[in-house]
Structures are given as structure tokens and as C-alpha cells.
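We include the pair:
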Amino acid sequence: MKKLFLASFLLLGMFGFANFVFGITGTTGSVDKYAWSNKIGWINFGCSGCNVQITNSTITGYAWNENYGWINLSPSRGGVVHTSSGLLSGYAWGENTGWINFSGASINTLGQFTGTAVGDIVATINFACGSSDCPVTTDWRPENITAVSSGGSNSSYSQSTMPTIPAPIPVENTSIDSAKLIVQLQEQIQALIQQVAQLKAQLQKPATVGLRTGSCEGIAFTRNLKIGSTGADVKCLQSILNRDTSTQVAATGPGSPGNEITVFGSKTLAAVKIYQAANGLTPTIQVGPLTRILLEMDLSSAGDQTDE
């Protein structure tokens, strides 16, 4: 019985004073605490404000980089986790670094972080960078590992070579404010509904001007007109010209107001030239594309009232 008690006491002492832990929360070392990013440089996992805590499933706290600031190891929409054997996965978040994937890293039997983490901004974070300043160490150990000192001191990397680290920031809320987003979407939907209603009102509004009646009913100027041209579009042309006394085709007889004809003659051309000049065009020998546009505009804005 005494031998059993003594053996139990010795075992309790050995495991009670071992400098690593499994089954309770561990921390990172105060000296062996740096990893190297080939984009942003040294990242400190053991600063005075980092407060990195390693349980049997998660890693919480912060890492610090002098150029990009804090990296949250347990953001609300992510978080670095690990298995009992020390295999890491999950994501950390930095306001200036974005998401960082830890699925390529692990904690070995010596409590050393090994492998790499990757991100769009940081590129590759190497925990075993081959320098005396690596790797990050912890007193947490994978399950069923015997006591091994996490020891080691990399005093060659003095505190004076690292930046002064500000106090830790609160855990940022990276989640979307759903209530605010819903309000914004509702406002946008209401604005779109109003625009649609306005467009419908414009489309349904009865036309009060620009009716193509009389000799211009169903007419569109789709071809050039010149002396010798014939057709209903010529008669409509004369009707438009006869609206203004300065561009009348004729005062009396064929081509006069109310007596428009379907033949494009010299009198019609003379009236067209006056019409072109009055509208800022260079008079030509035909009704060309620009003149046709003006005629279409006249039909749409005033309508044909000569035959009423």
C-alpha cells in the first residue's frame, strides 16, 4: 500500500510540474514567438498584448505585425481550430490582411508550430522559416505526448528589434449588420418601385400631340426624296411644309395647303431648301437623312393639321 501511494505521489509530481499541458489551456512562448511572411515580414504570436490561448480545440487571441497591425485568431465568422493531435485548420482575420487560412500548419510534439498559413495579403506565413527567430512555441502538447521541455531561448532577436506593440484591440465584429442591410435594401426596392411606376405612367399617358392624321397618317420618312420621287410620303412632306407660310409649296393649286400631291417637283424642292435653311441645315437638292429627322420630329411634336 505504501509503495502504491509513493508511486502515485511521484507520478502526480512529475505530471503536475511538467512544463507543458494537455487538457488545459496553453500559451505561446515569450521568446520563441515569431513566424515569417514573405509579404509582410515578421508576425509576433507572443507579444504582451497578444494573449494567445491554446485549448484542446481552439486558438484564441491575436498576432501582431508592425506594418499590418492586429490579426485576430478567433474572429466571429472564422477562427483557428485544431485537432487533439495538433493539426490546425480554420481562418484568422486582420482588418488589413484579410482572411488567413491555417489548414497547412500544425503543432508538433515539441510544442512548435510548423508548416504554413496562407492568405491573399500575407501570401505565405512560414512557422519553420529556418531562422533563429522561428518557430512559434507553446506549452500545449498534442495528446499522449510525454513531457518534453518547450525550452529554448532565441535571445538573438532582442525586443529592441521589434516594434512597440500597442494595447490589444477588442475583437472586431466582422459579421454583417443584417438589420441595417435589410433597411438599405428596402429603401432601394422602394426607389425602384417608384421609378417603375413613373415609367408606367409615361407609357400609359394618352398622346395629345404628334398624332399622324390626314395626309401624314401612317407615314414615316424612311427614304431620301428628290425631284421625281412619288408617294404618300411626298404628300406628307408637302403637308408639313405648308404649315408655315414661308415654306409653302404653293399658294394655290396643286401642292397648296389642302391640295398636296404625291409628286416631288421643283416647287417642293424650293420649299424644302427654305425649310432646311430655317432649321440650320445647308440647303441641298434632296430630303436627306438630317432633313428626314427634322420632319419626323415635326410629326411627333405638332401633328398634321392641314387636312382638318
About this structure: The mean pLDDT is 79.
